Structures are given as C-alpha cells and as structure tokens.
Amino acid sequence: MSVDPTRRTYAPVPSHGFQDLGAAVGGIFHGLIEGIGRILGGAVDLGVGVLSWIVDGVTSLLGGIADAIRGVLPGGSPWTPVQDAFRDQQLDLKNRTDLIPIGYCAAYMDRNVNLEWSGGERRLPFRAQLGPAQGAHVDEERERIVFDITGTWTIHVLTSYNGTIFTGDPRVHIDIFVRNPDGTLYSRWRVRDAPGDEEGSLTCSKPVVIDEPGMWVDVVCRSGRWRWWPGGTRYSGLAVVRSALGTDHRGTDEVPDEPAPPEPDPPVTPDP
Hints:
By secondary structure, this protein is an alpha+beta fold. 23% of the residues lie in helices and 29% in strands.
C-alpha cells in the first residue's frame, strides 16, 4: 500500500502498553481475591449472619471494581485500541430537546477534505448533527446550519488542518458566512493564520443578530498550500447557541480607521 505524502499521520499506539495494563489489572485481582479469602476464612467463626453480611459486601465490591475497569479499558479489553473504542456521547442526545430551552444546534464535518482536489478553497462539510437541536437545524445537503427562529445567537467554530509537504503561500484562513434566506450576504468574518507546513487549528466565537427565520451559516476554508482538513467531533465543530431573544443592535460590518493623534505643540522658546 502506498503512502500519501500529502497527509501526516500519527504512529499507532504499541499494543504492549495495553498488555502491560491488562497484566497489572490481573495482578490487582489476584491479590484482592487472596485477601478476600483470608477475610472469609476468619469470618466463619463469627457466625452465619456475619458471614452472610461479609459475602454480600465482597460481592458488591467485586462488581463495582469490574464495572469501573470496564469503563476505563476501551471496549472492555486491554487489547482494544482507544481510538476505535471512543465515541462522543453527545451523539446519543439528538432527541433531548429538554436540555436546550432557548435554542441550540451543532454539527461536525462528516469527512476529511483535501484542498488539493478543490483548488485550495472549499466549503467545509458540516453535515452531521451533534447532540439535540432546537430553534435551528442542520441542512445536510447544503452543509450548513439554518436558523429557524430569530434572536441573538453566538456562533462557535472549530476547524483543524494537517501539516503538509507542499510549498507556496504559508497562510490559511476560514470565512464564516451568515446569509439571508434568499442567499444574499448578511455578515461575514475571517480567522487567519500563517502556519507554513505545520498543523494547527482555527477557532472563533462571535455573536450575531438573526432577525429572520431561514437565515443560515456556513464555513469556507482556504490554504495557500495543499493540505488535509480533518473532520469528526475531535477536530471540527460548528455550533449556534441562542443567547438572547432580542434582535436590536445588529452592528456594523466594517468600521473606519482611528484618527491619527494630534501633533504635539511646538516647544516654547524662552525670551532672551
């Protein structure tokens, strides 16, 4: 299998680390069971009632320890890779609208994208819903979040980019676009960096006044060098949180430069 030179990957975690962990857990249980055996042996002389109480306590203890270890070890086995066992638990909360009384919606990129195949710029595919949603929804086909109700919302964005071996313009940026229902531009802002060939992330949080249902937000990325932009809940996110009901004070997209400071007064020359 050939190696894609445009994409940096991390070395897999050695399996012997999980084997050592499994051996350690086995040693803990071995010592624990020996100690419990000694306790039960001494408790026999105290009577059946005391013995029954101790047995019940030991059974509960062992069950709790087993449950705890199953929760710590990925997949319940010391040989299961962590990256294969982890799953963002917010994915199980899509219908819990009782947790979001004001308004909320979140999405993540459902795939990794390579800017080599799109001329260095493309809209990021925020198409997979994360958690419940109320007052806004994910438009999977158009890769955006649509606002269903008005109010002042805060938009949160997380994007990540991999390192690259390609040369060229060292800069990267993301543009966040908020558009009216007819597609005309309502507001936009940019987050930028100049990482060269290194990996990194671009993030932002910014409030925006939504004064009409059907407005939407999407994110476009650009890189001067071809590189991968990874998705999934670990490396990507687009969320909107309704923080106020009002729609006043929409703000100004661009503002003028501050004026230059006044010239200092000339020094006073004393009379001779």
